[in-house]
Every structure is written in structure tokens, then in C-alpha cells.
Amino acid sequence: MILDRDSGxxxxxxxxxxxxxxxxxxxxxxxxxxxxxARMYAKKLTGGKVELxxxxxxxxxxxxxxLGGAGKIKENDILILPDEKETCTLxxxxxxxxxxxxxxxxxxxxxxxxxxxxxxxxxPPYIKRDKPFDEDKDRYQTVFAESEGxxxxxxxxxxxxxxxxxxxxxxxxxxxxITLHVGFGTFKPIKCDNIEDHAMDSEFLEISDLNTxxxxxxxxxxxRIIAVGTTTSRALESASIKGFLKQFCGETSxxxxxxxxxxxxxxxxxxxxxxxxxxxxxxxxxTGKSHILNAYREAIKSGYRFYSYGDAMFxx
Length: 316
Description:
Blueprint: E1 2-3, E2 10-11, E3 26-31, E4 33-35, E5 39-44, E6 49-59, E7 62-68, E8 78-80, E9 87-95, E10 98-103, H1 108-118, H2 136-139, E11 147-150, H3 162-170, E12 174-180, E13 203-207, H4 209-220, E14 224-228, H5 230-238, E15 240-241, E16 244-245, E17 248-252, E18 267-271, H6 278-287, H7 289-301, E19 312-315
Parallel strand pairs: 1-19, 3-12, 3-14, 4-11, 14-18
Antiparallel strand pairs: 1-2, 5-6, 5-8, 6-7, 7-10, 8-9, 9-10, 12-13, 13-17, 15-16, 18-19
Helix pairs in contact: 6-7
């Protein structure tokens, strides 16, 4: 779907036709984060099963995790990992089902290989499956994924193929990569009556000195900055001060909702999001509530697919 940000006018196209809506005056910014196989099933020494989802690396072999069956686990409990040879230790409970876990490996590199071989690719909680789907390891990953660290994919990027990116480059469009490691909090619904009371989980963001300089120069030249995905949108807005970027390497918990004034991006390519999500609030802030509601009604009427493996919208 092509949505005009100002008028609300809608067009229906195939995604590969997006090249026809781009020009040498455009800059496409993509999130090159890579989803790690962050989910695994462990068990207590007594045999009770526990699900672990790696949320954030704190230090070598030290992770913040989401614990399935957290009520059955005590601090300092040892958990046996899937191959029944390796273990981890719950050092501290953090509340809300989260915990601080140390994996009992010799080196981080050894653990990284173990995760790659034994971990399961996490998919959104609304995708219900009786068992892991092996193809998710490849399908739930963008073709430009490079920087490992996400437990959820920047799904607007899933629509791009290497061939399409080459066509876009040949059109004269500049392509820049930034990194925002997507946390599981992206699926956390807003449950409070006042949206300002919603607590955003922090996520790691990095924009290099070189790409900061390039993006600022493109902005000064009047090029259109197109953010691919809500993650890229949050990243660029987090690093923006008075309309230009500063180099950024650290955590961001920026919450964008209606009333927010965008400082850097001009257009967004995004999927269709869950109700009561921070993601739908971001696109509503960018386009306006009435245009978004009308676009979603049209998407439902036209049989669009929603959510992570669904269709896309180009808000321009």
C-alpha cells in the first residue's frame, strides 16, 4: 500500500514496484540487526522444564533473559541446557518474568557457537506452532542482516531481496545501514489508560560516525530520508537533535506516540501492526490517526496480511 502522508490518498501496488516511487533524491535507511536463535528449553536439576529467551547481553556470558516457568525457579538454581551437557545459573530475578543468567561456558565464542547450533529462532507470540519451524531461521531474517543481537526481526526489511536492493541502487538511491537490536518488548501491548504511563523497554542502538556524517550531509542537501521500519524510525529519531543526527552507541527507550514531532525522517516503510501496540502509535504519530485508521480499514477490505510475515505500507 502507498499512503500519502498529507492527503491520505491510497494506492495498491506490489512491493517490487516500490522502485518506481524512489529517485536519486532518496536515502533508504535499513536496520542491519540479525536475529539470534535466542530461545531454548532447559530443565532444573529436579527435571522441571524451563524456557529461556535471551533478551539482552549484559557482559560476556551474562544475559538478561525471559523465563518461562519463572515461579518454579529460585535464585542460584542451576539449569541444564538442551544437550544436557552444559548449564547456566540464575543469578537474580528481575521481576516481570525476567532474570539475570550466567552461562557456564569457558568463552563467549564457545557459547555463541552453542546458541547457533542449539537455539531456536524466536517468533512473535501471536504465531502459534506446536513445534519450532526450521525455516524461520532463514525466513525470519533480512537479506542484509549482519549485526547479531535481536530476538525479533525488523520485519519491514523482510520484503527486500538482494535483487530489489540492486535495482534501487541503480536508480541512484543512497542506502545506509544502522543497527538497532530489537527486543521482545516490541510485542508488549499497551495496557495503561494513559499511554504516557507505558514503559518502553530499552534497546541497543548504534549509528557509526561515518553514517552519521553521511546522513547529515544528505539531509542538508534536501534528500528524502526513508526509514525502513519502525525500528529504524525510532533509531534515527533517538539520535536526532534539532533536525540532525549525533553519533549514537548505547540504549534508547524513546517512545513515539501521537503528538511527537518528527525531527529527521521524511517517509516510512512499515508493516501493518497489532492494535494496542507501540508500533501502531508510531505510525499514527507520523501520519495522523484518521489516515492510519482509514488505511487499515482499506487493508482489511482488500485482504492484506498483517503483522510480521504480512504486507507493507509505504507512507510518503
